[in-house]
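Chapter review: from sequence to fold.
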Amino acid sequence: MKYFLFFFFVFFFLSCAKMGVISGGEKDTIPPALIKTTPPVNSLNINETEFSFVFDEVINTENIKEKLIVSPYISSSFEISTKKNYLLISFDSVFEKNTTYILNFADGIKDITEGNAAKSVKYVFSTGPVLDSMTIKGRVLDMLTNEPEKEVLVALYDKKDSLGLFVNKPLYFTYTNGLGEFYIENIKEDYYRLYAFLDKNLSFIAEHTKEDYGFVSDSVLVNLETDSVFIPLFKLNLTPLRLIRSRKRGLYYEATYSRYVTKIELLNKTEKTPNYSLNDNNLTLRFYPTSLLTTKDSLLVVVKAYDSLSAYTQDSMYVSFSDSKRSKEKFKVFGLPSNNTGLADTVLFNFSFNKPVLLFEKKHLFTVIDSLYKKELNIKDFIWNNNKTKLSFNYLYKKDPFKLWKENKISALKQDSSLYYSDSLYSVHYNYLERLNVNKITFLLEKGSFVSIEKDTLEKSSVVFSFKNSDYYGTVQGSIKTDYKSFFVELVSENFRTVYKNKSKKKDFFLFSNISPGTYYIRVFIDENENGVWDIGNIITNSQPEKIYFLEKPLEVRSNWEIDGILLSF
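The token string follows.
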């Protein structure tokens, strides 16, 4: 009987059990930790060629051959042996005497489950009686925002290695923390080149076409504890400007360049020289057909193209055109302000066209309120670029004329009320005018306002602007103390999308008026060479970007409020 009860309870228990999947818990985000080395870390008088490492979990070392960096550089090769959490590195030759070496594993060691990289793991030893103990520390900041740059590779190279970050792996390196701070230790006392870059592909070699980078223009002496080194980070494509190709393409003749072109000069212009534009993000120079050039003709054109570094390339090309069944590219304008842009002051319009403009009918530019008010913009000063693909002008919108127009409309309606055969019709018109919002106006580009050199017209475009009451805005002003002769002061929003220019003409004073409420920074660009622009710098010529200063604390601008008494000292 007892055996029967035993089997009964076992059967009952199994039949009631539920099948399910065991939960894996929280995702592992902790990288492997080094718990033992042979020889021990910081050992002296080492003459071994084999080094073993034990980690606290099973490791993946499939990329360690490519990732391991030995500082200082050695020419000998090595072999890797891995078993679970154990790693053995065997070098094929002895190390140089009386030298401190660092084995930087970078991201070459990861856990086997989630791939967490042990980027901070390194192993230090000396083949002599002492360890190199020099250190260097500092910060890496984004130049334009003054924000700290985290997880940036900061690296030391041989002092003679002027462009080492683009071709070689570093002698010593580390990564910045969340505050943009870096600290490199166990360095041999000497002069070094110091660089920083966002190593997105973890190659330990900077890619100037894709990655931000920064440098210190002079060699840095690392001794005792070199402190407070500042590295500004920026992006500058160093690809040499050159003509890649020139050819007929559909209706056009096009020349393609290797990088962004800022300016074009035609050195042998004649009456037959065709119009041109810069297209495809300023990488393509496009020539347009002209009645003076038949499809059988070709014209020698000498082109001088400049890049942002003021470098240029000069090329000769025979421009010609052929008959094509392809349709013309649609005529477009770019640079219109965003809808519901606040109006408080003069509006700067910057139009960019994808084709040169043949005809501009300024009488087709209007200010519109609903369907009742339509008035031509009275604009006198227009600024065109050389080939008429860019147009800029200022226009001052004032609120009072629109309010006065509405008041006059209502007054005239009241005077004409006796002419209405129906009180209800009068009420409709009156209520319509009363509700009419003159705080919202529309800037209108009518169809036909611009005609391209290909005789196609620009489509109708419009932008709605919104007036705010004068007490909505704030003012920021203060004084300037500096020995610099040329500089530019700006007020920039917290997200750096809105920029206000200094309105003061006095060198020792700044003024920002009609500022929308929000958090702002004051930013000063220093024009050290006094050429009228801020220069980004050039690592080829070893010239760093010109300085940018920020007011230490952000400003909170409020409606109907004036912030005064600020002193900018730089």
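Two observations follow directly from the output. Residues 360 and 450 are 5 Å apart (CA to CA). Confidence is low (pLDDT under 50) at residues 1-23.
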